[in-house]
Write a structure and sequence with these properties.
- The chain folds into 2 domains: about 290 residues, Zn peptidases (Aminopeptidase); about 150 residues, 3-Layer(bba) Sandwich (Glucose Oxidase, domain 1), CATH 3.50.30.
- The longest helix has 20 residues.
- Helix 3 packs across helix 10 and helix 10 crosses helix 15.
- With about 475 residues, the chain is of the alpha/beta class.
- It is built from 16 helices and 16 strands.
- It is elongated and about 75 Å long.
- Helix content is about 35%, strand content about 25%.
- The chain has an 8-stranded mixed beta sheet, with helices on both faces. Strands 1-10-12-11-13 form a 5-stranded mixed beta sheet, sandwiched between helices. It has a 3-stranded mixed beta sheet with strand order 15-14-16, with helices on one face.
- The structure holds zinc ion.
- The site of zinc ion has 5 residues, from helix 10.
Length: about 475
């Protein structure tokens, strides 16, 4: 995802700011933005929206009955909040169903384990699979091991995620481990959960199978159980695991991206795109992942509307369907709006928990950089640092950016995120009003200023070209 764009964007010759002194926000606009920042800080709408979603809907795994309830909730909530336009766009994907999931160490020390099936896994036979465990420190280490060590065994990838920065490093063991293990003759795979916690909850998450290799069952055990299993293995005798999983594919399912828009006054067809993903995993109630992102962005737009400070361009909030099992909502949005990338003034998704926002990066044409600087001036008192001009807008908007959409990266503080992420412990009680409110306030200021900006931020192929 990291392209080196920033230096190219600030080279002289592309920009002509000195000749165009009007490319700044007016004094009055700066005052309005500061007013939004201060007034929204005293608001608790994001907290209320998230309370509503987690209480009235709860788990909403893509393709489950909770998915349909979440779509109905979102449509009704947008209307209740006074959005000018509310609509749905279909998103079709293969659904997956969780079933029984059980594991126990059968020898040398019999103990039950706390595990969960990974999303998209196949089932074990009815009687389960019992086999010896073979431990590896990482996916990489397993891929280097000879097949003779693995054949007929259950692979245990014991890769501990040490900090929130290591998700990208550790997650391939979850997403690709099963096929790599199957290639070497493993009968199942059980990984240490991808999470930074030390509680006894397993972390689920999606995995996929390569087409050219057998499909073996895949599960994750809690960090505490992984520690214990590793201690057993250290004693030097073979350690056997019995795994029972009854998950199954559940056919094709159509959910929806649910969209609410506040209409702009002068350029209503151009819009600032914000949002989060509406689906969650099924173990918790999806408070931090990603009810928070939905609530933050819905509340940001609602605050602007409620206070009658309509910007020139529209503000569009998209609650994406099925992010968790393969970014299906983001892909469907791009497919439906591919020919109108230039209408997106700026894109920014919230999908890393409850906030606060700690940094603002941009991806805009050079002429707009003075405006970004002014936006940062307004946001700095919230504790937000300036970023580079190489922003990534979030998972569901990543493809839009690759298609040239001007983007902002409003970085959320993820200190608690990977303790809770994809576990039964992702629940509303973890949400701190001051944190989520700061994030909603940031999104309100950002969305209003981007929608009010005197010039386009440059979405389109020209932006991509200039950045190469
Ligand atoms: Zn998420």
């Amino acid at each position: 995802m990291t392209l080196l764009l920033s230096s190219a964007l600030v080279t002289p010759g592309f920009a002509n700011d000195s000749a165009n002194k009007s490319v700044v926000f007016t004094e009055k606009e700066m005052q309005t933005a500061a007013w939004i920042r201060d007034a929204a800080r005293a608001d608790n709408m994001s907290y209320k929206i998230l309370e509503s979603l987690t209480t009235e809907v709860g788990p909403r795994m893509a393709g489950s009955p909770g998915d349909a309830r979440a779509v109905a909730w979102a449509e009704a909530k947008f209307k209740e909040l006074g959005f000018d336009k509310v609509w749905k766009e279909p998103v079709t994907f293969p659904a997956w169903k969780r079933g029984v999931e059980k594991a126990e160490i059968t020898a040398p020390f019999q103990q039950p384990l706390v595990i969960t099936a990974l999303g998209n896994t196949v089932a074990t036979p009815d009687q389960g699979i019992t086999a010896e465990l073979v431990e590896f420190a990482s996916l990489k280490e397993m891929m280097l091991a000879p097949s003779e060590r693995i054949r007929g065994k259950i692979v245990f990838i014991n890769h501990k995620m040490q900090s929130s920065n290591e998700y990208g490093l550790v997650v391939p063991g979850r997403s690709k481990g099963a096929s790599e293990a199957a290639r070497k003759g493993a009968v199942a795979i059980v990984i240490r959960s991808v999470g930074t916690d030390s509680h006894r909850f397993p972390h689920t998450g999606v995995m996929t199978y390569d087409a050219d290799v057998a499909q073996i069952p895949a599960a994750a055990m809690s960090n505490s159980d992984a520690d214990m299993v590793a201690r057993m293995i250290k004693r030097g005798k073979p350690v056997s695991l019995k795994l029972e999983i009854s998950a199954s594919a559940a056919g094709s399912y159509t959910s929806y991206n649910v969209i609410g828009e506040m209409t702009g006054t002068e350029l209503p067809n151009e819009y600032v795109l914000i949002g989060g993903h509406l689906d969650s995993w099924d173990l918790g109630t999806g408070a931090i992942d990603d009810g928070a992102g939905c609530a933050i962005t819905m509340a940001a737009a609602e605050f602007i509307k409620r206070n009658g400070i309509k910007p020139k361009r529209s503000i569009r909030v998209v609650l994406f369907a099925n992010e968790e099992q393969g970014l299906f909502g983001g892909k469907a949005y791009l497919a439906a709006h591919q020919t109108q990338i230039s209408k997106i003034q700026a894109a920014a998704e919230a999908d890393l928990g409850q906030g606060p926002v700690t940094k603002m990066a941009s991806f805009v044409r050079a002429e707009a950089l003075p405006l970004v600087k002014q936006m940062h001036t307004v946001l700095a008192p919230l504790g937000i640092e300036p970023g580079d001009n190489n922003a990534f807008p979030g998972p569901d908007m990543g493809d839009l950016r690759m298609a040239g959409a001007a983007s902002f990266g409003l970085a959320l503080k993820a200190d608690d995120y990977f303790n809770l992420h994809h576990t039964p412990d992702d629940t509303f009680d973890k949400i701190e009003p001051a944190r989520i409110n700061q994030a909603a306030t940031t999104y309100a200021v950002f969305a209003w200023m981007a929608a009010q900006a005197p010039i386009s931020f440059g979405s389109g192929v020209e932006l991509l070209k200039a950045s190469k």
